[in-house]
Design goal:
The chain has 26 helices and 26 strands. By secondary structure, it is of the alpha+beta class. Among the domains are: 70 residues, no CATH class; 112 residues, Glycoprotein, Type 4 Pilin, CATH 3.30.700. The strands form three sheets. The protein has a 19-stranded antiparallel beta sheet, sandwiched between helices. Strands 22, 23, 24, 25 and 26 form a five-stranded antiparallel beta sheet that branches. A two-stranded antiparallel ribbon has the order 10-18. A hairpin with a 2-residue loop joins strand 14 and strand 15. Helix 5 runs parallel beside helix 23 and helix 14 runs antiparallel to helix 17. It is globular. The N terminus is likely disordered.
Length: 753
Amino acid sequence: MRCYRCLALVGLVACVALLAACGKNEQASPSTSAPASTSAPPSTSAPVSEGVLPPRAAQSFVQAPWLRERLPEHTVAYLRIPSAWGLLSAPNGRPLDPALASEPHARIVAALREAVRKDKVLADAGLTPVLTLLLDDLDAPLEVAVIDSNDMLNPASSTALFSTHLKIVSVTELNGRLASLDNGGQLLKAPLDAEGRGALVNGGFVKFDAASGRLQALVGITASPTLLDRLLEQLKQTRSHRLHDVEQQIDHSGQGLFGWVSLKGLAGMVAPQIPDGPAAALQRDLIDKAQSLAFGWGTVDGRGRLQIRLEAPGARLLSYLAAKQYRADVKTAGKPRWAISLMLPDAERLAAFEGHLAADFGEPAAKEYRDFIALLKQQYGIVPVEWLKWIGPELLSFEDASGRFSALRVNDSQAFYRKLDELGQRFGWRRETLKVGKVEVQHLTIPSMAASQTESSTDATDKEAAFLALLVRMNTHLYWVESGAWLVFGEVPQALADRAASTLDTDLGHWLKQSQGYTPENALLGLTAVTRNAQREIYYAYLGGLQMLGDALGARISLADLPSASALKLPVDGAIGLALEATPGRVGFNISYEQTPVEVLMAGDGSALTGLMVAGIVAAIAIPAYEDYTVRAQIASVLAETDPLKQAMADYYAKHNELPKSDDDLELNFDGDSIRYLAGYGIGDGAIVLFFGDEAGAAITERTLLLTPYLGADGGLTWVCGSAGPPPGAKALVEATEYATDVPEKYLPGTCR
């Protein structure tokens, strides 16, 4: 119960967290006027006329934040949690403000507050004191500033200053309220003295200023009454702080949920804990450059924002991710319903990445990458840095009045087409120009990759063979038209003919920024979509919630005085957006909306959500597939390096007519422990046992792969990997072994299955 009483003193930390999870509105009015009276009766006046807004409330029921403008020197962290009514019902700089700031709405909130004090059910349950404190007395955000004279977050030397405002006018009243909590249990060592001073049972010191209603508390190892007084003296003056610039990108109102932490000194504490390995240098560089971490739920340019962002100017990782420009100037037929942007790496960023491979990831990883690029060039004639000179970095998908399309910027169309034709000659691709009405459509046919599967499936049944044969015939077809610097792709050629017949009157890039508040040049991957009537539905759901709460508390409230959605002139169209962002100075995740993130479910009548799901499905398929490929490549590289060991065992068998009992019987210069991805190796009952270590993919770490020798028809040893069967006519030399292959089959090369 001790934690419960602490919660009651500092505010509604847990209460706000619970309410926030319900997806309601947040934030308080910037007004600093006195709160509305809680004793106002429910309205009995006639409903407002259609199109006429009710008068604005003369008083605000929530105070503005106070500590953020007076942060003490050496503040290294800050947290602001809106009060319960600030989170749920206060104006927040968005379209519902006229209703939330109106006199009828203030009367409803006052009636609900009063009902909390008087409800018998709550009183019988012993909940009235704490709910009165949280839902009525507490009328401002809870603010916390962490101060450290070393200008770095250190639990051993940092203190936390709590600040909030109470509608309590005397020390005696506050003592009485605290004494009523938890059946009279003690929160303080003793009641506050006449000056409003006291000490917490669990450590820390409290000061309540009855004249202003402001409650302050200081906790921490170094907390003392003297330090509290010194900090309170600092709070008499306003001052700027570097977190304010970050806050403006997350919450213009300065009143939403907001947290900020300085990361100064983090590198010295964390960097030594990063184990050596791939990307260790890149991680240390990011930590060394990191300045702050911020998150919030607020308002930016009249729209809701839910953000988390890491500020790290000059970090090499961000230089690899951030593009210099992203011009989304493709034309659309009318305003789009949704759009997805993907930023491809450009040639310059890829070259920089390749130039720092060894420094960032280690020489072994750099060698693997170079070998992979060499393989691409040798077998497929593909050099990624060349392709990225010809295309990108802009890749877009969108739906407009003429249909759904994707668009790819082409910087050098001649080189791009030459390479397509070269690959066509090499792999049987076929490119042609189709005439659909008056539109010339490019058509590229790529043969199915399933052909190789049929060649290796000699044991397939007739039905399976027939199915594979049909699968081989299913080619990949791409259709596109040229539109300035863009290749615009459609599902079928007729879709491109529909687009050509439409009036292309909207610049997609302009629509993204002006209508959606979406910045594609900062988004690695992002989605924005149009919502329909989302604000009306959110507003009416909120009013229904007020009615239900009034019923539960036995309060007579009237919704009739509140305006309708049409009277408020709520916009029919709204915007929702999600973006993974990266600039040269920061990386973060951003969700934008009009009133609540719930609107993502209403976007574009589901089309936007469908688009996002498609993007998610693609990622869910592509990422595991790449991970599977990586693991298989690791196994293949290990098998290639075991050739000297297999040869030594073959020589031993030829000389002794038996297999060695252990690797100690062999005379060879072979250090299996030095093979990357292996924790070690051994010879068990004549078989080679490979043990994968921590550098291997998580899917095969601490797993085992067996290489089992058989006597071939030519009298020499032939090797069977994993779960593969022995070659025809081969004689088993290993009767049994205590080891077994436990690497999942999907990660094994084809010869090991």
